[in-house]
Amino acid sequence: MEALEEKEEAEQTAEDLNSVNSSDSLQDVEKEDVEQVSIPSDVPGFDWSSIDTSHLPSSYQTNSLREKKLLVIADLFSQQYTHVCPDRKPLFLHPVNECGVEKFVSTTLRPTVMPYPELHNWSGCASFVSNYLTREPLKCPITPPSSLYSPSTILKYQRGNCFDFTVLLCSMLIGAGYDAYCVHGYATREICTLDQTQELCPLLRKPQEVRPASKVEKFSKYRIKIPSELHSKFELQQEAKKKEEIGGVQKKEEEGEVEVEKSKRDPLHGLRVHAWVLVLSGNRKVPETFFINPFTGNSHNTTDECFLGIESIWNHRNYWVNMQDCRNGCKDLTFDLSNGICWEIMLPESNELHTLLPERAKDDMVSDPNYGCCAVETVYRASVRRPTYVCLPAASIFLTTLLHTAEFENQYSQGKKEILYKKAKLERWAPYMNGNGLVERLTVYADLDRTEVVEVTEWFKNREDMLDMREVNKQTQLITDYFRPGRPNLLKAHTYTSLEPETGHTMQFYHEARDDDLWKRVESATEMTEYFVGRADFLHSRHVEFGERENGMDTAGTRSDLSPRPIVQIKECFHRNPEKPADEDIEECIFMITEDSIWLTYHLEDHDTIASKVAFLRAIQRDRDRKGEEIFLTRDTCVKYQPWSSEKHKNVLNLYKLMWQLRKGLKELKHQVRESEAEV
C-alpha cells in the first residue's frame, strides 16, 4: 500500500512537471528559472525533519480503524475523480503528518475556542495567525505540499506554509462559530509570495465619502438662471498647453511603470498553488461570503482577481471538489455546497445514520483528544456504492494549552514584523519589546524604491506619559504627539519642531476635564493664543503679545521662569451673553500694557450697525503717596462711543467702577499668562 502511494506520488510529480513544461505560458521558462522559484524555506537553518516527535501521542503516529476506513474511502473517491476528470490535477486528500503517517485533511482540523476575547471574531483570529506564524514558501510553487502538520505543531514552532496557516486559522474560526472551510486553489504571485509592494498600505487608504441623499439638488423651471462666465480664448489655450505638457510627463512616468510591471510578469501565472480560508454567510451573522488570506489576515471578496481558481475545499466534517469553470477566476463561482452539479461531495451526509448504528457504535464516535481526527463510521447500502458516514468534531482543548498568555501578547515569532507596501513600510513589534513602548511604525516614501522618507508615524503602548501616536513630517520637520487621557495637564496633542521653549508649540487639551476649559494653545517666541470652549464667562480666546527681554537674551530656547518675557498686550474675546444687554456685554477687551490703556468693544443688537466702544487711556495713575494707588477718570483719560446706550450706561460712575474692575482683573490675568508659559 505504501509503495503504491509512493509510486502514485512520483507519477503525480512527473505529471506536474510535464504540465509545466508543456504549457504555452511556460515555453520561455528554463530549468534554472524553476529552480529559482523552488526555494525550500524563508528561515535559514530550520529543518522540519529534525523536530522531535517522540513526545507526540500515539494518535499522531498511527491510524485508528475508523481513520483507515476513511483513507480507503478517500482513495476510492480519488480514483473515481481521476477517471471522470483525467485532465485535472490530483486532489489534496491525505498528506503525511509530522510523524510520516497519512491523515485525511479533514481530520487535521482542530475546532478550538480560544480563551482570549480578541480571538472570538474572524478579524482577530486572522490577525493573530498572520502575525504569530512565520511564512515558509512551498517547496514547489505549482504543486501542493506532500505533508500537512497538525495545528498544535504549527502553533508550537510558529512557522508553516500557506496550508499550515489555513488549517490553523480555519480551526480557530470553526471553534468561534463561523462556517469556515479550507480552500486549495490557485492565486497570483503577489498573494502566494506575500508580495505587497504594489498595494497601498491599509493605514493610508482614505474612507469613501458618501453623499447624503438629502443634498441632491432639485431643479425647477422657476429657478434663477445664473449668467455664464466669460473666458478668454487665449488664456484657455495657454492652460491647455500647460496641461498637455504636464500630462505628457505623467504619461511617460506611467509608461515606465507599466514597462517595469510587464518585465515582472509571472511565467507561472495561473499555476501557483495557494491555500486560503472561505467563510460562508449565515453563522455569526455573516452577511456575505468572503475569503481570508491567511498570510495577511485581510478579507477579500469572492470576486477578487487575485484568486484564480479553486480545486477543492474541506472542513472538519466533509470534503468538496469544485466542478465549476474557473476560466474567469472565482468571479462566477457559486458557493452553494448543496448543489451537486457545482460541488462534488466526498462523503454524502445522512440523517438516518444514528438510527442505523448500534448503541455501542454511537458511544465509540468520540475522537481521541490527543489528536484532531474525527470519528468516522461507514454503513454500506446495497443501492449506493459510496458509503454513508457521520463525522463528529473533536472537543479539543489542546491548542489552548499551547498558547499561553505571554505568547499570545507576543504575537511575533521574532519580536518584530516588517511589511513592504507601495511607497510605504510598516513595522510592528510586540509590547514591551522596545524600551520606549514603540509597537508600530509606518514610514511613507516619495519613490517606489523607498529611499526618500516623507512622513513617519509611530504608535506606542504602555507608556507612563500616555503617549499614543507620533507623526513626524520629514520635509517640514514638524512633529505631532498624540496622548491618551490621563496626563496631569490633560494634554491631547502637541505639535512642535523642537522641545525647547518659545520655539513654536501647538497644544490641544481634553477641555471637558480641565477647570479652565482650555481647548487649544498656540505659542511662539513673540505671542501666545489660547482657545476655550464652554466657559461660564463666555471667554473663547485670549491672545498675548510679548516683547524682547531687556538683557538682550535670545528668546528661543530660554526658560520663562528664569527670564520672563515682558507682556506687551493681552486681548480677550467673548461670546454673546444673552442675559446681558448688548451695550453691557463686552465682546473684545484689549489691555495695552506698555501704553497703559484699556480698549473695550461691546456686542451688537440685531438692529444695530456700529458697536459701542470705550477706551481708558493712561487709566492707571500711580501716586507715590502713602495712601497707595489712585485712579483718576477725566475726559482725557476716558474716550467713549456709545450711540445705542441709555443715559444710565453713560454715567461716569459706572465707567469708573468698570475701570476699577478691569484694573483689578489685570493682575490675575498676568498671573494666568505666566502660568500658561510655565505649563508650556
Automatic annotation (TrEMBL):
The keyword Methyltransferase does not apply. GO terms for biological process: cell differentiation; flagellated sperm motility; spermatogenesis. Residues 1-14 have a biased composition (Acidic residues). Residues 273-346 form the CEP76/DRC7 peptidase-like domain. This is Dynein regulatory complex subunit 7. Belongs to the DRC7 family. It is found in: Cytoplasm, Cytoskeleton, Flagellum axoneme. Residues 414-680 form the Dynein regulatory complex subunit 7 MORN domain. Coiled coil: none annotated. GO terms for cellular component: motile cilium. Its main location: cytoplasm. Keywords: Cell projection, Cilium, Coiled coil, Cytoplasm, Cytoskeleton, Differentiation, Flagellum, Spermatogenesis. Gene3D superfamilies: 3.10.620.30. Residues 16-26 have a biased composition (Polar residues). The gene is Drc7. It comes from the Eukaryota. PANTHER family: DYNEIN REGULATORY COMPLEX SUBUNIT 7. Residues 1-37 are annotated as: Disordered. Pfam families: CEPT76_peptidase, MORN_DRC7. It comes from Sapayoa aenigma.
